[in-house]
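no rush on this but wanted to send it before i forget. what follows is a protein written twice so to speak, once as letters and once as structure tokens for the fold. mainly i need to know what kind of three dimensional shape the backbone takes. thanks a lot i owe you, the record is right below.
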Amino acid sequence: SPDGRRIASASNDHSIRIWDDDDGRNLSTLSGHSDTVTSVTWSPDGRRIASASHDHSIRIWDSDDGRNLSTLSAHSNVTSVAWSPDGRRIASASRDQSIRIWNSDGRYLSSLSSQSFWITSVAWSPDGRRIASTSHDYFIRVWDSDNGRTLSFLTGHSNTVTSVAWSPDGR
């Protein structure tokens, strides 16, 4: 969690668990997905959690009481989900070779797609102006989050790129 007091985990058992960082207690279990939960992320304010699943959905949860606030009918098997730094948008990645952008209420806003293989991971830049994605095509793509234009390709891996993260200071 943004305050460093709780940990969220996603599992093949279709659940999300919230853990206390101090003593390791399981504080709650969020249930509702019908297939593997592939990714989980906290909203910047710590009040919500977004989860992605192979059940083709993204769920937004209240992090305090575990209520499912909304279920987004996403693309195919959703592999990754990330909140924008301002908490106003969510990016999701999928095996259908696209990234979808949603508002924080779950309304679909736009799609980024020009990858030739399924996308494994997405991450917002600290300023929220770019999204980095990884895929089975061995590339990392950097996108303009507003207009969907590809800004750059990062190459050098010789196999599937599974995850990506920005440095906290954006440099």
Remarks:
- The radius of gyration is 15 Å.
- The mean pLDDT is 91.
